[in-house]
UniProtKB/TrEMBL annotation:
Keywords: Actin-binding, ATP-binding, Membrane, Motor protein, Myosin, Nucleotide-binding, Repeat, Transmembrane, Transmembrane helix. InterPro entries: Kinesin_motor_dom_sf, Myosin_head_motor_dom-like, Myosin_TH1, MYSc_Myo1, P-loop_NTPase. Signal peptide: none annotated. The keyword Nucleotide-binding applies. It comes from the Eukaryota. Residues 599-621 are annotated as: Actin-binding. ATP binds at G135, E136, S137, G138, A139, G140, K141, T142. This is Myosin Ic, paralog a. Pfam families: Myosin_head, Myosin_TH1. One of its GO terms (molecular function) is ATP binding.
Length: 1038
């Protein structure tokens, strides 16, 4: 079968040549994995470095990629990240989707690729995973952990509950940063604690819970900072962002220079940090996580108390006794912490000792009192931070037991530190990194060996530096540095940091990785102090100054200070300082031993999971974008153990890929495998590599993967593929010419399909636009002719208006018969609207009448029939009692007793009393028990009088009211007040009516004020006569 594409050959050749001019952009943006770009951007996997033993080649590859804003590079499955110190457009939601579900090596290196690969491994293998992030301060560890959490929050399946959990996971970061991060010389947002976070996923892969472990908070920063550094962020955020009312309650002012614990670093503000905005972020995050307002206030009370404690000063008496000279601070502490001020004052200047069961109080000298104050500040802050983490864990905890759940752990921990002055904190941090390096090498070797055994390839022994000897030097029982430090702290008698150093020299003097000034040679002595010892770590030599080792390891708080804190009214402190701690006579573990034990538990957690690694590097100390400091980067490459990792990874085969991936990419290079291979994958790969001329020592075939030993072999293959696809050589031999024709044929088919699909999409878009334009035209034309008779020009518009009105009416119908609101209809629906309104009202009246009980209808007849002229009209509309708290309400007019001025009121009836209300204000309350009677006339007026006792000061006397529904009102009031027998209706003339109305002098004077002086005299005579007849008739009856 002959295939000829001669008419289209020149066309496709020109298209491909035109695309060649954009090759650089395509390589960089679309498929950075194309290895022809390696001369400019380096290799995306250090395993492919030809000279993998050269540190210079390693760093040059980093530099090339950094220059092109390619900040991520692999070492096998390890991700190396260089902090760009600027925003890059590679973290959008579109980028997340680009890496979602894509094989790890199919696309350029990225933190999202590692996150997705870990997530898919957890889902498919049903095995817990962990991601270990390490690096120097300022290398971007915290940002990397944020990116990973954000990726899971956006891409994982979620419902409302899971979305809320994702918010809490993300919002925990600003809270922990505020309380656990600080500005240092190397980083403006340096994490001063280690953090391990577990994110729990259910069987569907949705996040359902979380848990955080914290390690070694740098508590010494609370009381001391180096020059150019700051205390923890929360102190400055509170002073800068807290409102005036809050600061007044905490007895604080906004100037950080007024607080001793904030001035030592002489750096109150940082240009790259907005404490005010961060304060708002932290307050919002606390609310999202679930902190109550009371808990936030108690937390801020403790933060403010630390500042007040730092401003507590001491004086020294003639006999050396110490006393407090700043009583204001003690009063502030007493108020904020809820402790006894005198007890706190005593505990800061004295210590309680127990000897042979007896307690003794010993005064502290000036230095001891200062140390006790600082120890209390560190203990309060450190324990509060632990409580904060526990509270976040409660918010993130798995609410229901989820079967089949898996975990991804995230370890964000300090990298190897070498400062000018290295102390106890650097010793613990570097010990932690030694353990992590030991774990890293062990797990890397184990995974390599497992992969080789799975693929059926012989394992070759790998030479590497085993740092177990250094770990044993630090942690070995009875002989390690930590054990010696603990023994020296517990030894009775005079002990100090120098005696600890001497003990180290006597015990570890012959160790190859331990050196002191005394044990060193003459050259080393010149660069070492007599108070230092040197450890030869896997990453290099570090000198540690022993000053402060004993105090920081003891980290003891006087017993009487603990007793004062136990009695605090602050619930957080009450939780942090347990009563059992004071009662228990057992000495707590030393700080180094606590850290060692927690580190052992962490190693157990990490060993139980499948690890992934992120190694973070900062390119310069000035935090400047685009600047690459080779000396600094070389220092970090060494301390992160990257070259050691590369050597382990390259000890066998540099490149390995699954058969299907390798065959899919390189099958155009062999006529037997192009366009499709229909046999076994292993046979197809074997056919392909034999055609390419691979030598036996260059590769091996496993059970599911091909292993290529030398990067040069892979580069040659990649270059051949790029050469053929770019059509850079017009003259090809016979076999390749056939492949070329087939490629052109496929391109032709693809172009036809693409053009057809694009044409169909364009026609659909054009149709939608035409329909939209026609709809707008009809609407505008209908609006112009809206006042005309119904016709084709306005038919659509009028139909739409009618439909909109009916839909609006259906959602806004009146709910009861008293509601007269009704939407205004359009002109074309006025008549229909009136019919609908009338029908709806009739329907509501029918429903209302059905709810009225028969006995309620009898009561008005018994009270008013044949006695009230307006009775027939008043009972025309039925009424019933409601079951609300206010059982009945009606508008009335109340007439003042003086001046008889009408006042519009609302009369509301409840179960026990009636009230007269003016808008929202109660003007008069009428208790049913105090109501003597109700009087009405027999005429058709709406007047009625409620008779109240004059001797009761709480009542305002009789109430003269007028209502259009007098029969309904009096009936309901008489029924609810049980005063049916006290309703007085007298027939007769005006005088008789007055007799009824004027049963009390106050009511008489009220009505008399309505008339002119002449009529007042006439009415007075009538009233006196009526009273006289009433008295005579009552006497005759008696």
């Amino acid at each position: 079968m002959r295939i000829s594409f001669l008419p289209t050959h020149n066309y496709f050749l020109s298209v491909l040549q035109g695309c060649h001019h954009r090759q650089v952009d395509i390589v960089r943006l679309v498929m950075e994995s194309a290895l022809t770009a390696r001369d400019r951007v380096g290799v995306q996997d250090f395993v492919l470095l030809e000279n993998y033993n050269s540190e210079a080649a390693f760093i040059e590859n980093l530099r090339r990629r950094f220059r092109e804003n390619l900040v991520y590079t692999y070492i096998g499955s390890v991700l190396v990240s260089v902090n760009p110190y600027k925003e890059l457009e590679i973290y959008s939601k579109q980028q997340m989707e680009r890496y979602r579900g894509v094989s790890f090596y199919e696309i350029s290196p990225h933190i999202y690729a590692l996150s997705d690969n870990t997530y898919r491994a957890m889902r498919t293998e049903r095995k817990d995973q962990c991601i270990l992030i390490s690096g120097e301060s300022g290398a971007g560890k915290t940002e990397a952990s944020k990116k990973i959490l954000l990726y899971y929050a956006v891409t994982c399946p979620a419902n409302d509950h899971m979305a809320a959990l994702g918010d809490r996971l993300l919002q925990s970061n600003p809270v922990l940063e505020a309380f656990g991060n600080a500005k240092t010389l190397r980083n403006d947002n340096s994490s001063r604690f280690g953090k391990y976070m577990d994110v729990q996923f259910d069987f569907r892969g949705a996040p359902v819970g979380g848990h955080i472990l914290n390690y070694l908070l740098e508590k010494s920063r609370v009381v001391h900072q180096n020059h150019g550094e700051r205390n923890f962020h929360i102190f400055y955020q509170l002073l800068e962002g807290g409102d005036d009312d809050l600061l007044h309650r905490l007895d604080l002012d906004r100037n950080p220079q007024n607080y001793k614990y904030l001035v030592k670093g002489n750096c109150p503000r940082v240009s790259s940090i907005s404490d005010k905005n961060n304060w708002k972020t932290v307050m919002k995050a606390l609310s999202v996580i679930g902190f109550s307002d009371e808990e936030v206030q108690k937390l801020l009370n403790i933060i403010a108390s630390v500042l007040h404690l730092g401003n507590t000063h001491f004086g020294e008496g003639e006999e050396g006794e110490t006393h407090i000279t700043t009583e204001t601070q003690i009063r502030n502490l007493e108020k904020l912490l809820g402790v006894d001020g005198s007890a706190l004052r005593e505990a800061l200047t004295h210590k309680k000792l127990t000897a042979k069961g007896e307690e003794m109080i010993s005064p502290l000298n000036f230095e001891q009192a200062m140390s006790a104050r600082d120890a209390l500040a560190k203990a309060m802050y450190g324990r509060t931070f632990t409580w904060l983490v526990e509270k976040i864990n409660q918010s993130l905890a798995l609410k229901v037991n989820s079967k089949g759940s898996s975990v991804i752990g995230l370890l964000d921990i300090y990298g190897f530190e070498v400062l000018q002055h290295n102390s106890f904190e650097q010793f613990c941090i570097n010990y932690c990194n030694e353990k992590l390096q030991q774990l890293f090498i062990e797990l890397t070797l184990r995974s390599e060996q497992e992969e080789y055994e799975t693929e059926g390839i012989a394992w070759e022994t790998v030479k590497y530096f085993d740092n177990k000897i250094i770990c044993d030097l630090i942690e070995e029982k009875h002989k390690g540095i930590i054990s010696i430090l603990d023994e020296e702290c517990l030894r009775p008698g005079e002990t100090c940091d120098i005696s600890f150093l001497e003990k180290l020299e006597g015990t570890l003097g012959g160790h190859p990785h331990f050196v002191t000034h005394k044990l060193a040679n003459g050259k080393t002595r010149r660069v070492m102090s007599r108070e230092e010892f040197r450890l030869l770590h896997y990453a290099g030599e570090v000198n540690y100054n022993v000053n402060g080792f004993m105090d920081k390891n003891n980290d003891l708080l006087n017993r009487n200070l603990k007793e004062v804190m136990c009695q605090s009214d602050n619930q957080i402190l009450n939780h942090c300082f347990r009563r059992e701690e004071v009662i228990d006579q057992k000495r707590p573990e030393m700080a180094a031993t606590q850290f060692k034990n927690s580190l052992m538990k962490l190693m157990e957690i990490l060993m139980s999971k499948e690890p992934s690694y992120v190694r973070c590097i900062k390119p310069n100390d000035a935090k400047q974008p685009g600047r690459f400091d080779e000396v600094l980067v070389r220092h970090q490459v060494k301390y992160l153990g990257l070259m050691e990792n590369l050597r382990v990874r390259r000890a066998g085969f540099a490149y390995r890929r699954r058969f299907e991936a390798f065959l899919q990419r390189y099958k155009p290079l062999c006529p037997d495998t192009w366009p499709n291979w229909h046999g076994k994958l292993a046979d197809g790969v074997s056919t392909l590599v034999n055609h390419l001329g691979y030598k036996a020592e260059e590769y091996k075939l496993g059970r599911s993967k091909i292993f290529i030993r030398f990067p040069k072999t892979l580069f040659t293959t990649e270059d051949a593929l790029e050469l053929m696809l770019s059509l850079s050589k017009p003259c090809l031999n016979g076999s390749h010419w056939l492949s070329f024709l087939i490629v052109i044929g496929y391109l032709c088919v693809v172009i036809v399909i693409q053009s057809g699909w694009r044409g169909m999409k364009g026609r659909r878009r054009a149709k939608k636009r035409r329909e939209a334009a026609e709809l707008i035209r009809r609407f505008i034309k209908g609006f112009i002719y809206r006042h005309e008779e119904y016709c084709p020009e306005n038919a659509y518009f009028l139909d739409h208006v009618r439909y909109s009105f009916l839909m609006k009416l259906s959602k806004n119908l009146p709910k009861n018969v008293l509601d007269r609101n009704w939407p205004t209809p359009p002109p074309s629906l006025v008549e229909a609207s009136e019919h609908l309104q009338r029908l709806h009202l009739q329907n509501m009246v029918m429903k209302y009448c059905r709810r009225i009980q028969p006995e309620w209808k009898k009561q008005p007849s018994e009270i008013f029939k044949d006695q009230k002229d307006s009775y027939p009209q008043g009972v025309g509309s039925c009424f019933g009692l409601q079951t609300w708290c206010v059982s009945y309400g009606v508008s009335v007019v109340k007439y003042d007793r003086r001046g008889f001025k009408p006042r519009p009121r609302q009369l509301l009836l409840t179960n026990t009393y009636a009230v007269l209300v003016d808008r929202t204000k109660i003007k008069q309350r009428i208790d049913y028990n105090a109501l003597r009677g109700i009087s009405v006339s027999s005429l058709s007026d709406g007047m009625f009088v409620l008779h109240m006792p004059n001797e009761d000061n709480k009542q305002k006397g009789d109430a003269v009211l007028h209502c259009n529904h007098v029969i309904e009102v009096v009936t309901k009031l008489a029924m609810m007040a049980s005063k049916i027998d006290h309703v007085n209706i007298n027939p007769g003339r005006v005088s008789s009516t007055l007799t009824v109305f004027c049963l009390s002098c106050s009511t008489y004077h009220l009505i008399l004020s309505l008339f002119s002086p002449v009529w007042r005299a006439v009415l007075s005579l009538l009233w006196l006569g009526a009273r006289r007849e009433s008295l005579i008739s009552s006497g005759a009856q008696s």
